[in-house]
Amino acid sequence: MFYPQHRPKIDPSGQAAAEYLLILTVVFLALAGVSVLFSTQVNHYLSLLVEVVVLPF
Asked: 25: which DSSP letter?
């Protein structure tokens, strides 16, 4: 008896492209999160610096 060859629903190039886009999205979101946290920390430290500089005057 002959069974037709099972073919995946997504061809390998399409799966590779989808994985690449998912990885790229995760990396972009991680970098955006780090930049937001870094910006928050910089604003916090700059406000502390301004308070220290203004305090003696």
From this structure: H
- pLDDT at residue 38 in the model: 96
Other beta carbons less than 10 A from residue 20's beta carbon: 10
Q: How far apart are CA 13 and CA 5, in angstroms?
A: 19
Sign of the dihedral defined by the CA atoms of residues 24, 29, 30, 31, in that order: positive
pLDDT tens, 18-31? 999 999 999 999 99
**H helices within the chain, ranges in order?**
12-54
Q: How far, in Å, CA of 1 to CA of 18, rounded?
A: 36
Please check whether residue 10 is in contact with residue 18, taking contact to mean a CB–CB distance below 8 angstroms: yes
